[in-house]
Amino acid sequence: MVYIFFGSGDFAAGLLVALAERGILPEMVISTPDKPRGRGLKIRPGPVAEASKRLGIPLLQPAKLSSPDFIASLPRADFILLSDFGRILKKPILEFPKIASLNLHPSLLPLWRGAAPIERSLMAGGPYGITLFAMDEGTDTGPVILQEELPAASVSPYPTKGELVKEYLRRAPELIKAGFEGLIKGSLRPVPQEGEPTYAPRIEKSELWPDWGREAEAVARHINALSPKPGARVLFGGKLLKLLRAVPVPEPKDQPGKVIIGDKWLAIACSDGAVRIEELQPEGRRPMSAREFTLGLRL
Length: 299
Fold this sequence. Notes:
By secondary structure, the protein is of the alpha/beta class. The protein contains 8 helices and 17 strands. It folds into 2 domains: about 5-200, Rossmann fold, CATH 3.40.50; about 205-299, Formyl transferase, C-terminal domain (Methionyl-tRNA Fmet Formyltransferase, Chain A, domain 2, Roll), CATH 3.10.25. The protein has helices at about 10-20, 45-55, 70-75, 90-95, 115-125, 160-185, 215-225, 290-299; strands at about 5, 30, 35, 40-45, 60, 80, 100-105, 115, 130-135, 145-150, 200, 230-235, 240-250, 260, 265-270, 275-280, 290.
């Protein structure tokens, strides 16, 4: 199973490492060029480029995917496997591999096509799952090879993005391996997506500030969908608090958006109750439990 891996973001980097840990190594990794990142905006490699170098896998970071020189530099392969790449492949690359160009997408397609499927599915309260599909020139529109839905028991009632990603990365390598083998043997055939599609647009900066006028359940799901990165946020005492885990509760009731400090707990009022914050990160400090934070306030 000779394949080339295309990816750029954190999810793709985690998937590349998970595949490597199971011995399913790509012949080459394709990622985006290094760019200014972090404080000081120094030129740095992205998560996939860093993972590729750490794993010792040959890496290319082309500025233009359409360049004939780039396509000519690719090793012959049975498959292309893409995930969390942020760029759409055109026909010359899609038709390059011997068997198929595949995409591992973190949703149950046609649900949540687009840039932020994990966050949007969490905000909606599920369902959760992963899809391996054959790429076409559309955005997540190609026919399905395999899908796996997460049983409700495998995630908490209000999972965070970090928890969901961990579960996806645990399951994805075996799904991909089964897809490779089934296509090679001819026991699997692409099946058109069925059902009404939904879309997952990129998370906007304005969405990092929860709307406290909504119902507590929706607010809790919104907070957890952004955890650990980029993190929902609120101002408290003139300083920024990142909110990393929340659950809805019927009490206390107060003006939406008011931060309420109790005995070893912290809640923020919503339209029909509140969200109890279980984990947070004060500005310039490490993540901590709400209990630890409130004890520090009293001290």
